[in-house]
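The authors assume throughout that readers already know how a fold can be written as discrete tokens. For illustration, here is how one protein appears when written out as sequence plus structure tokens:
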Amino acid sequence: YLVDERRCMELLELAADQYYVQIIDDCRACRYATLYYDTPQWDMYHLHHNRRLTRQKIRTRTYVETGVTYLEVKNKSNKGRTHKRRMALDRSLFAAAATDTAAADFLRREARYAPETLSPSLATRFVRVTLVNHAMTERLTIDFDLHFDNVRAAGGGNKDMNGCGDMDMNSRGNTDMNGRKDMNTIVLGDTDINGCGNNGIRGMDNGFRPAAEASHGHTASLGRLVVIELKQDALAPSPMKQLLAQLRVKPFKLSKYCIGEALTNPLVKHNRFKAKIRAIGKMAAHDSNINDML
């Protein structure tokens, strides 16, 4: 789902008595730094663009508050199911995962692409709030302040990719390798999700860049737009789906990697993403529901 900040706040108010907000190391709004890898010809991007049902994404991800880093391989089946495999990685290898012996062995087992053909392509950074319903059958991730940085177009080989822009990647003490040592949940209505440094929803960057068409600058931002992903037990009812329907919010599929590449990379085709990019731009410009633009 994709909504603007105003609609997101309405959703949070409606969900306050049905959901908990997840706390990780005393932080409710947690920073994520992700680096997507691809082949020199952007094979993984183009398979998605060309609507290939069976496809794969490879990325490194750092949970900024803990410093924990993983190498991940995400597989999408022709049934629409996503399966993820990952291994813990030293943070110093965030931008050089394929050069590590253990990581290369992992990629040979789990990926369809040889490690030596992979290199960093797109960096993303965002802040995430996670909600869990009282029955523990549904989890909702809310991603805001989403930024893209095309590391190839910007000559990323000489950049400090552990920083991912202006992000402070310093670890906050020791934690288990799942990055979830002190996980707790508290009632959403009793907490301030803006209470994690300067990462509050109301502190988001103002304005979508580029506004409509892909202008292929090296960086882009979704401004005040919020990406919502719902993960649930298929056999259990979904309170959140009912709340989203109440707000007239319909599903809007969005690949962070593909949209980021389409916005920042002039060397990849993006015809099949143009309508989606225009809809995102109009939504940001008019501060309205994405469904009104489709």
